[in-house]
Protein backbone atom coordinates (compact mmCIF):
# COMPACT_ATOMS: atom_id res chain seq x y z
CA UNK A 1 0.00 0.00 0.00
CA UNK A 2 1.11 3.58 -0.71
CA UNK A 3 1.17 4.80 2.94
CA UNK A 4 3.45 1.92 3.90
CA UNK A 5 5.92 2.79 1.11
CA UNK A 6 6.19 6.44 2.15
CA UNK A 7 8.51 7.68 4.83
CA UNK A 8 6.96 9.28 7.87
CA UNK A 9 8.02 12.76 6.79
CA UNK A 10 6.42 12.43 3.36
CA UNK A 11 3.31 10.72 4.74
CA UNK A 12 2.64 13.69 7.02
CA UNK A 13 3.60 16.36 4.51
CA UNK A 14 1.19 15.45 1.66
CA UNK A 15 -2.10 15.88 3.54
CA UNK A 16 -0.67 18.60 5.75
CA UNK A 17 -2.54 21.61 4.36
CA UNK A 18 -5.95 19.89 4.44
CA UNK A 19 -5.43 18.63 7.98
CA UNK A 20 -4.49 22.07 9.30
CA UNK A 21 -7.63 23.65 7.85
CA UNK A 22 -9.90 21.01 9.38
CA UNK A 23 -8.07 20.79 12.69
CA UNK A 24 -9.46 23.99 14.24
CA UNK A 25 -13.08 22.95 13.60
CA UNK A 26 -12.72 19.35 14.73
CA UNK A 27 -10.27 19.67 17.62
CA UNK A 28 -12.82 20.34 20.32
CA UNK A 29 -15.13 17.48 19.34
CA UNK A 30 -12.34 15.01 18.70
CA UNK A 31 -10.57 15.89 21.93
CA UNK A 32 -13.73 15.33 23.94
CA UNK A 33 -14.59 12.04 22.28
CA UNK A 34 -11.02 10.78 22.46
CA UNK A 35 -10.73 11.75 26.11
CA UNK A 36 -14.07 10.16 26.95
CA UNK A 37 -13.24 6.91 25.19
CA UNK A 38 -9.80 6.81 26.77
CA UNK A 39 -11.20 7.40 30.22
CA UNK A 40 -13.83 4.68 29.70
CA UNK A 41 -11.21 2.22 28.57
CA UNK A 42 -8.76 3.03 31.36
CA UNK A 43 -11.47 3.05 34.02
CA UNK A 44 -12.72 -0.36 32.91
CA UNK A 45 -9.16 -1.69 33.02
CA UNK A 46 -8.65 -0.15 36.47
CA UNK A 47 -11.81 -1.81 37.81
CA UNK A 48 -10.86 -5.17 36.33
CA UNK A 49 -7.41 -4.94 37.91
CA UNK A 50 -8.87 -3.87 41.26
CA UNK A 51 -11.33 -6.78 41.33
CA UNK A 52 -8.51 -9.13 40.30
CA UNK A 53 -6.29 -7.91 43.14
CA UNK A 54 -9.11 -8.42 45.62
CA UNK A 55 -9.69 -11.94 44.28
CA UNK A 56 -6.02 -12.88 44.63
CA UNK A 57 -5.88 -11.47 48.16
CA UNK A 58 -9.02 -13.39 49.12
CA UNK A 59 -7.55 -16.60 47.72
CA UNK A 60 -4.47 -16.10 49.88
CA UNK A 61 -6.53 -15.18 52.94
CA UNK A 62 -9.07 -18.01 52.62
CA UNK A 63 -6.97 -20.69 50.96
CA UNK A 64 -4.60 -21.01 53.90
CA UNK A 65 -7.30 -22.70 55.99
CA UNK A 66 -6.99 -25.92 53.96
CA UNK A 67 -3.25 -26.08 54.63
CA UNK A 68 -3.89 -25.58 58.35
CA UNK A 69 -6.40 -28.45 58.51
CA UNK A 70 -4.14 -30.68 56.42
CA UNK A 71 -1.35 -30.10 58.91
CA UNK A 72 -3.69 -30.84 61.82
CA UNK A 73 -5.18 -33.99 60.26
CA UNK A 74 -3.19 -35.08 57.17
CA UNK A 75 -5.22 -36.82 54.50
CA UNK A 76 -5.18 -40.57 55.06
CA UNK A 77 -4.52 -40.31 58.80
CA UNK A 78 -7.35 -41.97 60.72
CA UNK A 79 -9.13 -40.31 63.60
CA UNK A 80 -7.65 -41.13 67.02
CA UNK A 81 -9.42 -43.85 69.00
CA UNK A 82 -9.09 -41.99 72.30
CA UNK A 83 -8.31 -38.34 72.81
CA UNK A 84 -6.98 -38.81 76.31
CA UNK A 85 -4.18 -41.18 75.22
CA UNK A 86 -3.32 -39.35 72.00
CA UNK A 87 -3.64 -35.81 73.29
CA UNK A 88 0.13 -35.27 73.16
CA UNK A 89 0.41 -36.12 69.46
CA UNK A 90 -2.67 -34.03 68.62
CA UNK A 91 -1.31 -31.11 70.60
CA UNK A 92 1.96 -31.17 68.60
CA UNK A 93 0.09 -31.37 65.28
CA UNK A 94 -2.23 -28.55 66.27
CA UNK A 95 0.75 -26.40 67.30
CA UNK A 96 2.37 -26.96 63.92
CA UNK A 97 -0.95 -26.35 62.15
CA UNK A 98 -1.47 -22.99 63.87
CA UNK A 99 2.07 -22.05 62.86
CA UNK A 100 1.21 -22.31 59.13
CA UNK A 101 -0.97 -19.18 59.03
CA UNK A 102 -1.08 -17.94 62.62
CA UNK A 103 -2.70 -14.77 61.38
CA UNK A 104 -5.57 -15.44 60.83
CA UNK A 105 -5.78 -19.24 61.53
CA UNK A 106 -4.68 -19.28 65.16
CA UNK A 107 -7.32 -21.72 66.44
CA UNK A 108 -7.59 -25.40 65.47
CA UNK A 109 -9.90 -27.85 67.20
CA UNK A 110 -11.45 -31.32 66.88
CA UNK A 111 -14.59 -33.03 68.21
CA UNK A 112 -15.80 -36.60 67.69
CA UNK A 113 -18.94 -38.69 67.90
CA UNK A 114 -18.29 -39.51 71.56
CA UNK A 115 -18.46 -35.81 72.45
CA UNK A 116 -14.73 -35.59 73.12
CA UNK A 117 -12.99 -32.34 72.22
CA UNK A 118 -9.48 -30.89 71.96
CA UNK A 119 -8.47 -27.48 70.64
CA UNK A 120 -5.40 -25.23 70.58
CA UNK A 121 -5.68 -21.45 70.55
CA UNK A 122 -2.39 -19.60 69.80
CA UNK A 123 -2.14 -16.21 71.47
CA UNK A 124 1.36 -15.52 70.19
CA UNK A 125 4.36 -17.28 68.78
CA UNK A 126 5.07 -19.05 72.09
CA UNK A 127 1.88 -18.73 74.16
CA UNK A 128 -1.26 -20.83 73.66
CA UNK A 129 -4.31 -22.28 75.38
CA UNK A 130 -5.19 -25.97 75.20
CA UNK A 131 -8.89 -26.82 75.56
CA UNK A 132 -9.80 -30.43 76.41
CA UNK A 133 -12.91 -32.51 77.03
CA UNK A 134 -11.35 -36.00 77.11
CA UNK A 135 -14.30 -38.01 78.52
CA UNK A 136 -17.04 -36.71 76.22
CA UNK A 137 -19.11 -35.24 79.04
CA UNK A 138 -19.12 -32.25 81.32
CA UNK A 139 -17.38 -28.90 80.77
CA UNK A 140 -14.02 -28.35 79.15
CA UNK A 141 -10.76 -27.72 80.99
CA UNK A 142 -8.50 -24.91 79.73
CA UNK A 143 -4.72 -25.00 80.16
CA UNK A 144 -2.02 -22.42 79.40
CA UNK A 145 1.25 -23.54 77.82
CA UNK A 146 4.41 -22.05 76.37
CA UNK A 147 6.02 -23.68 73.33
CA UNK A 148 5.12 -26.85 71.54
CA UNK A 149 6.34 -29.08 74.38
CA UNK A 150 5.72 -26.76 77.32
CA UNK A 151 4.01 -28.15 80.41
CA UNK A 152 0.29 -27.58 80.92
CA UNK A 153 -0.42 -25.07 83.67
CA UNK A 154 -3.15 -22.95 85.26
CA UNK A 155 -6.08 -25.35 84.59
CA UNK A 156 -9.49 -23.68 84.53
CA UNK A 157 -12.77 -25.59 84.25
CA UNK A 158 -15.47 -23.75 82.31
CA UNK A 159 -18.82 -23.01 83.99
CA UNK A 160 -20.94 -24.05 81.02
CA UNK A 161 -20.96 -27.47 79.42
CA UNK A 162 -19.51 -27.38 75.94
CA UNK A 163 -21.05 -30.08 73.73
CA UNK A 164 -19.15 -30.18 70.39
CA UNK A 165 -21.76 -32.38 68.72
CA UNK A 166 -24.31 -29.59 69.08
CA UNK A 167 -22.11 -26.91 67.56
CA UNK A 168 -22.87 -25.63 64.02
CA UNK A 169 -19.39 -26.47 62.73
CA UNK A 170 -19.81 -30.14 63.74
CA UNK A 171 -23.33 -30.50 62.34
CA UNK A 172 -22.44 -28.69 59.11
CA UNK A 173 -19.39 -30.86 58.48
CA UNK A 174 -21.22 -34.12 59.17
CA UNK A 175 -24.02 -33.10 56.79
CA UNK A 176 -21.70 -31.78 54.06
CA UNK A 177 -21.38 -34.06 51.00
CA UNK A 178 -17.59 -33.61 50.81
CA UNK A 179 -14.93 -33.89 53.48
CA UNK A 180 -14.05 -30.18 53.36
CA UNK A 181 -16.65 -27.50 53.88
CA UNK A 182 -17.46 -24.06 55.26
CA UNK A 183 -19.94 -23.03 57.89
CA UNK A 184 -22.22 -20.08 57.21
CA UNK A 185 -20.69 -16.71 58.09
CA UNK A 186 -21.65 -15.70 61.63
CA UNK A 187 -21.02 -12.92 64.15
CA UNK A 188 -18.64 -13.90 66.95
CA UNK A 189 -20.31 -13.08 70.26
CA UNK A 190 -16.99 -12.16 71.93
CA UNK A 191 -15.35 -9.92 69.30
CA UNK A 192 -18.46 -8.90 67.30
CA UNK A 193 -16.45 -9.73 64.16
CA UNK A 194 -17.61 -11.84 61.25
CA UNK A 195 -16.24 -15.39 61.32
CA UNK A 196 -16.41 -18.33 58.93
CA UNK A 197 -15.18 -21.78 59.90
CA UNK A 198 -13.41 -24.26 57.61
CA UNK A 199 -14.24 -27.86 58.53
CA UNK A 200 -12.76 -31.22 57.64
CA UNK A 201 -14.53 -34.49 58.33
CA UNK A 202 -12.13 -37.11 59.73
CA UNK A 203 -12.79 -40.83 59.26
CA UNK A 204 -11.84 -43.79 61.44
CA UNK A 205 -9.89 -46.88 60.39
CA UNK A 206 -12.85 -48.33 58.46
CA UNK A 207 -13.67 -45.10 56.63
CA UNK A 208 -16.67 -44.03 58.72
CA UNK A 209 -16.97 -40.37 59.79
CA UNK A 210 -15.59 -40.22 63.30
CA UNK A 211 -15.13 -36.53 64.00
CA UNK A 212 -14.61 -33.03 62.64
CA UNK A 213 -11.50 -30.83 62.60
CA UNK A 214 -12.04 -27.10 62.17
CA UNK A 215 -10.30 -23.73 62.12
CA UNK A 216 -11.89 -20.29 62.43
CA UNK A 217 -11.20 -17.58 59.84
CA UNK A 218 -11.88 -14.01 61.05
CA UNK A 219 -13.09 -11.81 58.20
CA UNK A 220 -12.04 -8.45 59.62
CA UNK A 221 -9.01 -8.54 57.30
CA UNK A 222 -11.35 -8.56 54.30
CA UNK A 223 -12.76 -5.17 55.32
CA UNK A 224 -9.22 -3.92 56.02
CA UNK A 225 -8.14 -5.02 52.53
CA UNK A 226 -11.08 -3.25 50.89
CA UNK A 227 -10.50 -0.08 52.90
CA UNK A 228 -6.90 0.10 51.67
CA UNK A 229 -7.99 -0.15 48.03
CA UNK A 230 -7.46 3.26 46.41
CA UNK A 231 -9.78 3.83 43.44
CA UNK A 232 -11.29 7.28 43.87
CA UNK A 233 -12.76 9.55 46.54
CA UNK A 234 -16.32 8.26 46.06
CA UNK A 235 -15.56 4.64 45.13
CA UNK A 236 -16.80 1.65 47.10
CA UNK A 237 -15.60 -1.97 47.11
CA UNK A 238 -17.30 -4.90 48.78
CA UNK A 239 -17.40 -8.66 49.12
CA UNK A 240 -20.88 -10.13 49.49
CA UNK A 241 -22.51 -13.51 49.54
CA UNK A 242 -24.79 -14.39 46.63
CA UNK A 243 -27.88 -13.40 48.64
CA UNK A 244 -26.41 -9.95 49.38
CA UNK A 245 -25.15 -10.52 52.93
CA UNK A 246 -22.06 -8.32 53.35
CA UNK A 247 -18.76 -10.01 54.13
CA UNK A 248 -16.75 -6.80 54.01
CA UNK A 249 -17.08 -3.28 52.61
CA UNK A 250 -14.58 -0.46 52.08
CA UNK A 251 -16.74 2.18 53.74
CA UNK A 252 -19.76 2.20 55.96
CA UNK A 253 -21.01 -0.65 58.11
CA UNK A 254 -21.43 -4.32 57.32
CA UNK A 255 -23.03 -5.04 60.72
CA UNK A 256 -25.91 -3.33 62.48
CA UNK A 257 -26.41 -3.10 66.22
CA UNK A 258 -29.47 -4.75 67.75
CA UNK A 259 -31.61 -3.21 70.49
CA UNK A 260 -30.21 -5.80 72.85
CA UNK A 261 -26.52 -6.50 73.11
CA UNK A 262 -24.99 -7.84 69.94
CA UNK A 263 -25.00 -7.27 66.20
CA UNK A 264 -26.41 -8.86 63.10
CA UNK A 265 -25.20 -8.89 59.52
CA UNK A 266 -26.25 -6.23 57.08
CA UNK A 267 -27.50 -7.03 53.59
CA UNK A 268 -26.17 -4.92 50.73
CA UNK A 269 -29.76 -4.07 49.77
CA UNK A 270 -30.26 -2.53 53.22
CA UNK A 271 -26.97 -0.60 53.32
CA UNK A 272 -27.32 3.08 54.28
CA UNK A 273 -24.72 3.78 51.58
CA UNK A 274 -26.74 4.22 48.39
CA UNK A 275 -23.83 3.25 46.12
CA UNK A 276 -23.39 -0.09 47.92
CA UNK A 277 -27.06 -1.01 47.46
CA UNK A 278 -27.23 0.26 43.87
CA UNK A 279 -24.03 -1.50 42.75
CA UNK A 280 -25.15 -4.83 44.20
CA UNK A 281 -28.59 -4.47 42.58
CA UNK A 282 -27.00 -3.71 39.19
CA UNK A 283 -24.77 -6.78 39.38
CA UNK A 284 -27.70 -9.00 40.39
CA UNK A 285 -29.73 -7.68 37.46
CA UNK A 286 -26.95 -8.88 35.15
CA UNK A 287 -27.60 -12.40 36.45
CA UNK A 288 -24.27 -13.08 38.13
CA UNK A 289 -26.07 -14.93 40.90
CA UNK A 290 -27.81 -17.33 38.53
CA UNK A 291 -26.70 -20.94 38.23
CA UNK A 292 -25.76 -20.50 34.56
CA UNK A 293 -23.23 -17.86 35.58
CA UNK A 294 -21.75 -19.77 38.49
CA UNK A 295 -18.23 -19.92 37.00
CA UNK A 296 -17.93 -16.19 36.27
CA UNK A 297 -14.61 -15.74 38.05
CA UNK A 298 -13.16 -13.54 35.29
CA UNK A 299 -13.59 -9.86 36.24
CA UNK A 300 -16.19 -8.00 34.14
CA UNK A 301 -17.52 -4.46 34.00
CA UNK A 302 -20.89 -2.79 33.56
CA UNK A 303 -22.38 0.71 33.75
CA UNK A 304 -25.64 1.88 35.26
CA UNK A 305 -27.33 5.04 36.49
CA UNK A 306 -28.09 5.39 40.18
CA UNK A 307 -31.14 6.98 41.74
CA UNK A 308 -29.70 10.48 41.25
CA UNK A 309 -29.07 9.88 37.55
CA UNK A 310 -25.30 9.57 37.96
CA UNK A 311 -23.47 7.15 35.70
CA UNK A 312 -21.58 4.52 37.70
CA UNK A 313 -19.02 2.01 36.46
CA UNK A 314 -18.77 -1.35 38.21
CA UNK A 315 -16.25 -4.18 38.15
CA UNK A 316 -17.36 -7.53 39.50
CA UNK A 317 -16.43 -11.22 39.65
CA UNK A 318 -17.26 -14.36 41.56
CA UNK A 319 -14.72 -15.79 44.01
CA UNK A 320 -13.16 -18.95 42.60
CA UNK A 321 -15.63 -21.79 43.37
CA UNK A 322 -12.66 -24.04 44.14
CA UNK A 323 -12.49 -22.24 47.50
CA UNK A 324 -16.01 -23.46 48.29
CA UNK A 325 -17.42 -19.97 49.00
CA UNK A 326 -20.31 -18.42 47.05
CA UNK A 327 -19.00 -14.85 47.31
CA UNK A 328 -19.07 -11.90 44.90
CA UNK A 329 -16.50 -9.12 44.57
CA UNK A 330 -17.87 -5.73 43.51
CA UNK A 331 -16.07 -2.41 42.99
CA UNK A 332 -18.08 0.68 41.93
CA UNK A 333 -16.86 4.16 40.97
CA UNK A 334 -19.00 7.13 39.81
CA UNK A 335 -18.03 7.90 36.24
CA UNK A 336 -17.65 11.56 37.16
CA UNK A 337 -14.66 10.64 39.35
CA UNK A 338 -12.83 9.32 36.32
CA UNK A 339 -13.83 12.25 34.07
CA UNK A 340 -13.03 15.03 36.55
CA UNK A 341 -9.34 15.12 35.74
CA UNK A 342 -9.94 14.41 32.07
CA UNK A 343 -12.22 17.44 31.56
CA UNK A 344 -9.55 19.88 32.67
CA UNK A 345 -6.98 18.17 30.50
CA UNK A 346 -9.26 18.25 27.47
CA UNK A 347 -9.96 21.98 27.85
CA UNK A 348 -6.27 22.71 28.17
CA UNK A 349 -5.52 20.52 25.16
CA UNK A 350 -8.13 22.32 23.05
CA UNK A 351 -6.68 25.75 23.91
CA UNK A 352 -3.17 24.63 23.14
CA UNK A 353 -4.34 22.99 19.89
CA UNK A 354 -5.93 26.25 18.76
CA UNK A 355 -2.72 28.18 19.40
CA UNK A 356 -0.71 25.52 17.65
CA UNK A 357 -2.98 25.62 14.59
CA UNK A 358 -2.31 29.36 14.09
CA UNK A 359 1.43 28.82 13.75
CA UNK A 360 1.37 25.30 12.23
CA UNK A 361 1.43 26.39 8.57
CA UNK A 362 4.59 28.45 9.07
CA UNK A 363 6.63 26.00 11.08
CA UNK A 364 5.17 22.66 9.94
CA UNK A 365 7.96 21.57 7.66
CA UNK A 366 10.64 22.37 10.24
CA UNK A 367 8.71 20.55 12.95
CA UNK A 368 8.30 17.44 10.81
CA UNK A 369 12.00 17.43 10.07
CA UNK A 370 12.76 17.73 13.77
CA UNK A 371 10.34 14.90 14.63
CA UNK A 372 11.94 12.49 12.17
CA UNK A 373 15.41 13.29 13.47
CA UNK A 374 14.24 12.70 17.01
CA UNK A 375 12.70 9.38 16.02
CA UNK A 376 16.07 8.26 14.60
CA UNK A 377 17.70 9.26 17.88
CA UNK A 378 15.12 7.26 19.80
CA UNK A 379 15.78 4.22 17.64
CA UNK A 380 19.50 4.48 18.33
CA UNK A 381 18.82 4.90 22.05
CA UNK A 382 16.66 1.76 22.04
CA UNK A 383 19.48 -0.10 20.31
CA UNK A 384 21.87 0.91 23.09
CA UNK A 385 19.42 -0.34 25.72
CA UNK A 386 19.20 -3.61 23.85
CA UNK A 387 23.00 -3.87 24.02
CA UNK A 388 22.77 -3.53 27.80
CA UNK A 389 24.46 -0.13 28.16
CA UNK A 390 21.79 1.90 30.06
CA UNK A 391 19.10 0.52 32.37
CA UNK A 392 15.45 0.80 31.44
CA UNK A 393 12.34 -1.01 30.36
CA UNK A 394 9.84 -0.85 27.53
CA UNK A 395 6.38 -2.09 26.69
CA UNK A 396 5.98 -4.93 24.15
CA UNK A 397 6.31 -3.78 20.55
CA UNK A 398 3.36 -4.26 18.18
CA UNK A 399 4.19 -6.68 15.38
CA UNK A 400 2.51 -4.47 12.75
CA UNK A 401 4.82 -1.53 13.54
CA UNK A 402 7.91 -3.64 12.97
CA UNK A 403 6.86 -4.11 9.32
CA UNK A 404 6.88 -0.38 8.49
CA UNK A 405 9.66 1.03 6.32
CA UNK A 406 10.00 4.37 8.08
CA UNK A 407 11.50 5.60 11.32
CA UNK A 408 8.58 4.21 13.35
CA UNK A 409 9.30 0.75 11.97
CA UNK A 410 12.98 1.11 12.79
CA UNK A 411 12.11 2.11 16.36
CA UNK A 412 9.75 -0.87 16.71
CA UNK A 413 12.40 -3.32 15.49
CA UNK A 414 14.98 -1.78 17.82
CA UNK A 415 12.73 -2.13 20.85
CA UNK A 416 11.85 -5.72 19.92
CA UNK A 417 15.56 -6.49 19.69
CA UNK A 418 16.11 -4.77 23.04
CA UNK A 419 13.46 -6.91 24.71
CA UNK A 420 15.01 -10.09 23.34
CA UNK A 421 18.48 -9.15 24.55
CA UNK A 422 17.32 -8.10 27.99
CA UNK A 423 15.94 -11.61 28.56
CA UNK A 424 18.86 -13.57 27.02
CA UNK A 425 22.35 -14.33 28.25
CA UNK A 426 24.68 -13.21 25.43
CA UNK A 427 27.33 -15.88 26.08
CA UNK A 428 25.18 -19.03 26.21
CA UNK A 429 22.03 -17.94 24.41
CA UNK A 430 19.99 -19.16 27.40
CA UNK A 431 17.55 -17.13 29.46
CA UNK A 432 19.20 -14.73 31.90
CA UNK A 433 18.74 -14.07 35.61
CA UNK A 434 15.80 -11.69 35.22
CA UNK A 435 13.94 -14.05 32.88
CA UNK A 436 14.23 -17.12 35.15
CA UNK A 437 13.12 -15.19 38.26
CA UNK A 438 10.08 -13.89 36.39
CA UNK A 439 9.22 -17.40 35.13
CA UNK A 440 9.45 -18.81 38.67
CA UNK A 441 7.16 -16.02 39.95
CA UNK A 442 4.70 -16.71 37.11
CA UNK A 443 4.76 -20.44 37.89
CA UNK A 444 3.99 -19.76 41.57
CA UNK A 445 1.09 -17.49 40.59
CA UNK A 446 -0.22 -20.17 38.21
CA UNK A 447 0.00 -22.77 40.99
CA UNK A 448 -2.02 -20.61 43.38
CA UNK A 449 -4.67 -19.46 40.93
CA UNK A 450 -5.39 -22.79 39.25
CA UNK A 451 -5.01 -24.95 42.34
CA UNK A 452 -2.50 -27.13 40.50
CA UNK A 453 -1.71 -30.20 42.61
CA UNK A 454 1.56 -30.92 40.83
CA UNK A 455 4.60 -29.29 42.45
CA UNK A 456 7.53 -27.91 40.49
CA UNK A 457 11.23 -27.72 41.20
CA UNK A 458 14.11 -25.29 40.81
CA UNK A 459 17.69 -26.52 40.42
CA UNK A 460 20.87 -24.48 40.97
CA UNK A 461 23.90 -25.78 39.06
CA UNK A 462 27.38 -24.54 39.97
CA UNK A 463 30.36 -25.15 37.68
CA UNK A 464 33.06 -26.00 40.23
CA UNK A 465 36.37 -24.15 39.96
CA UNK A 466 35.49 -22.18 36.84
CA UNK A 467 37.95 -19.49 37.94
CA UNK A 468 40.70 -22.11 37.97
CA UNK A 469 39.80 -23.09 34.40
CA UNK A 470 39.95 -19.45 33.28
CA UNK A 471 43.33 -19.03 34.99
CA UNK A 472 44.90 -22.22 33.63
CA UNK A 473 43.49 -22.36 30.10
CA UNK A 474 42.27 -18.85 29.37
CA UNK A 475 38.88 -17.16 29.50
CA UNK A 476 38.01 -18.41 26.03
CA UNK A 477 38.11 -22.00 27.29
CA UNK A 478 36.07 -21.01 30.33
CA UNK A 479 33.42 -19.43 28.11
CA UNK A 480 33.35 -22.57 25.95
CA UNK A 481 32.83 -24.65 29.11
CA UNK A 482 29.86 -22.49 30.11
CA UNK A 483 28.32 -22.79 26.66
CA UNK A 484 28.69 -26.57 26.58
CA UNK A 485 27.35 -26.96 30.11
CA UNK A 486 24.34 -24.85 29.10
CA UNK A 487 23.78 -27.02 26.00
CA UNK A 488 23.93 -30.23 28.03
CA UNK A 489 21.53 -28.84 30.61
CA UNK A 490 19.12 -27.82 27.86
CA UNK A 491 19.36 -31.28 26.27
CA UNK A 492 18.88 -32.99 29.64
CA UNK A 493 15.44 -31.54 30.47
CA UNK A 494 12.04 -31.52 28.84
CA UNK A 495 10.98 -29.03 26.21
CA UNK A 496 8.67 -27.23 28.64
CA UNK A 497 11.41 -26.74 31.24
CA UNK A 498 13.56 -23.60 31.35
CA UNK A 499 17.36 -23.32 31.62
CA UNK A 500 18.99 -19.99 32.47
CA UNK A 501 22.44 -18.67 33.25
CA UNK A 502 21.96 -17.13 36.67
CA UNK A 503 25.45 -15.81 37.45
CA UNK A 504 29.05 -16.18 36.25
CA UNK A 505 29.39 -19.89 37.03
CA UNK A 506 25.80 -20.72 38.04
CA UNK A 507 22.81 -21.98 36.08
CA UNK A 508 19.21 -22.24 37.27
CA UNK A 509 16.64 -24.73 35.93
CA UNK A 510 12.87 -24.56 36.30
CA UNK A 511 11.24 -28.00 36.05
CA UNK A 512 7.65 -27.09 35.18
CA UNK A 513 6.16 -30.04 37.06
CA UNK A 514 7.41 -32.98 39.10
CA UNK A 515 5.48 -35.74 40.78
CA UNK A 516 7.31 -35.42 44.07
CA UNK A 517 10.74 -34.75 45.56
CA UNK A 518 11.98 -38.14 44.38
CA UNK A 519 11.15 -37.14 40.81
CA UNK A 520 13.15 -33.90 41.23
CA UNK A 521 16.09 -35.87 42.68
CA UNK A 522 15.94 -38.24 39.71
CA UNK A 523 16.19 -35.25 37.37
CA UNK A 524 19.19 -33.97 39.33
CA UNK A 525 20.97 -37.34 39.07
CA UNK A 526 20.21 -37.46 35.35
CA UNK A 527 21.80 -34.05 34.85
CA UNK A 528 24.82 -34.95 36.98
CA UNK A 529 25.34 -38.03 34.81
CA UNK A 530 25.05 -35.96 31.62
CA UNK A 531 27.57 -33.43 32.91
CA UNK A 532 29.99 -36.03 34.28
CA UNK A 533 31.17 -36.90 30.76
CA UNK A 534 34.34 -35.04 29.62
CA UNK A 535 33.51 -31.70 28.01
CA UNK A 536 34.43 -31.53 24.33
CA UNK A 537 35.09 -27.79 24.36
CA UNK A 538 37.86 -28.10 26.96
CA UNK A 539 39.57 -31.08 25.38
CA UNK A 540 41.60 -28.93 22.95
CA UNK A 541 43.08 -26.75 25.65
CA UNK A 542 43.36 -29.10 28.65
CA UNK A 543 45.48 -32.14 29.46
CA UNK A 544 43.92 -35.53 28.69
CA UNK A 545 41.51 -36.72 31.35
CA UNK A 546 40.93 -33.24 32.76
CA UNK A 547 37.30 -33.13 33.94
CA UNK A 548 34.96 -30.35 34.93
CA UNK A 549 32.65 -31.08 37.85
CA UNK A 550 29.35 -29.49 38.79
CA UNK A 551 27.26 -29.37 41.95
CA UNK A 552 23.46 -29.32 41.77
CA UNK A 553 21.00 -28.24 44.47
CA UNK A 554 17.25 -28.85 44.44
CA UNK A 555 14.24 -26.97 45.84
CA UNK A 556 10.63 -28.15 45.47
CA UNK A 557 7.61 -25.84 45.64
CA UNK A 558 5.82 -25.39 47.97
CA UNK A 559 7.74 -27.44 50.56
CA UNK A 560 11.03 -25.50 50.25
CA UNK A 561 9.71 -21.99 49.72
CA UNK A 562 6.65 -19.89 48.91
CA UNK A 563 8.37 -17.40 46.59
CA UNK A 564 11.16 -17.31 44.03
CA UNK A 565 13.72 -15.83 46.43
CA UNK A 566 13.27 -18.52 49.08
CA UNK A 567 13.18 -21.34 46.49
CA UNK A 568 16.43 -20.23 44.86
CA UNK A 569 18.04 -19.68 48.26
CA UNK A 570 17.04 -23.19 49.38
CA UNK A 571 18.35 -24.72 46.15
CA UNK A 572 21.66 -22.86 46.51
CA UNK A 573 21.95 -23.97 50.14
CA UNK A 574 21.30 -27.56 49.07
CA UNK A 575 23.93 -27.21 46.31
CA UNK A 576 26.54 -25.89 48.75
CA UNK A 577 25.77 -28.69 51.19
CA UNK A 578 26.25 -31.30 48.48
CA UNK A 579 29.44 -29.56 47.41
CA UNK A 580 30.84 -29.65 50.93
CA UNK A 581 29.82 -33.28 51.34
CA UNK A 582 31.56 -34.20 48.09
CA UNK A 583 34.85 -32.61 49.21
CA UNK A 584 34.69 -33.70 52.84
CA UNK A 585 37.33 -36.25 53.95
CA UNK A 586 36.07 -39.78 54.53
CA UNK A 587 35.00 -40.44 58.08
Protein topology:
Layout: H1 2-5, H2 8-13, H3 16-72, H4 87-100, E1 107-112, E2 117-122, E3 127-133, E4 141-146, E5 153-157, H5 168-175, E6 180-182, E7 186-187, E8 194-203, E9 209-218, H6 220-228, E10 236-241, E11 246-249, E12 255-257, E13 263-265, H7 274-285, E14 300-305, E15 311-318, E16 327-334, H8 335-386, H9 399-402, H10 407-422, H11 433-450, E17 456-463, H12 466-473, H13 475-491, E18 498-501, E19 506-511, H14 517-532, H15 536-539, E20 550-557, H16 564-583
Antiparallel strand pairs: 1-2, 1-9, 2-3, 3-4, 4-5, 6-8, 7-8, 8-9, 10-11, 10-16, 12-13, 14-15, 15-16, 17-19, 17-20, 18-19
Task: Give a verbal description of the structure.
45% of the residues lie in helices and 20% in strands. The chain has 587 residues and is of the alpha+beta class. It folds into two domains: 51-341, PAS domain (Beta-Lactamase), CATH 3.30.450.20; 433-583, Reverse transcriptase/Diguanylate cyclase domain (Alpha-Beta Plaits), CATH 3.30.70. Strands 1, 2, 3, 4, 5, 6, 7, 8 and 9 form a nine-stranded antiparallel beta sheet that branches. It has a five-stranded antiparallel beta sheet with strand order 11-10-16-15-14. Strands 18-19-17-20 form a four-stranded antiparallel beta sheet, with helices on both faces. Strand 12 (255-257) and strand 13 (263-265) form a beta hairpin. Helix 3 (16-72) packs antiparallel against helix 4 and helix 8 (335-386) crosses helix 10 (407-422). The longest helix has 57 residues, at 16-72. It is flat and about 95 Å long. Residues 384-398 have low confidence and may be disordered.
Amino acid sequence: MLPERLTLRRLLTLPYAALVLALALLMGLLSWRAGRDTVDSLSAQLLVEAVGRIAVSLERHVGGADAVLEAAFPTGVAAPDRLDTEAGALRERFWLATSVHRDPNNYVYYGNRQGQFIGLWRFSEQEAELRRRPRGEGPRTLYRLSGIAGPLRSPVTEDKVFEPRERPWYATAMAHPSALGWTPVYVDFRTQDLIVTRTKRVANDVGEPEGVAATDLPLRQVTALLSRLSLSENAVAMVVEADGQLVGVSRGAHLKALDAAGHERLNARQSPDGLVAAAYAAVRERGLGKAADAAATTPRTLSFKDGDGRSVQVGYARVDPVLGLDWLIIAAVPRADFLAGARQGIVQAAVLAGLATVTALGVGWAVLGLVTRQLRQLAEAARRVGDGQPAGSAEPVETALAGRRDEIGELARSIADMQRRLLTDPLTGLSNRGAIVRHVDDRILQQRRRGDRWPFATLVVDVVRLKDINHRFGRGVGDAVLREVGQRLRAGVRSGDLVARYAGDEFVLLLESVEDRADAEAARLHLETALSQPLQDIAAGAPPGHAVSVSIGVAVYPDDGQDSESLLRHAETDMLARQRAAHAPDA
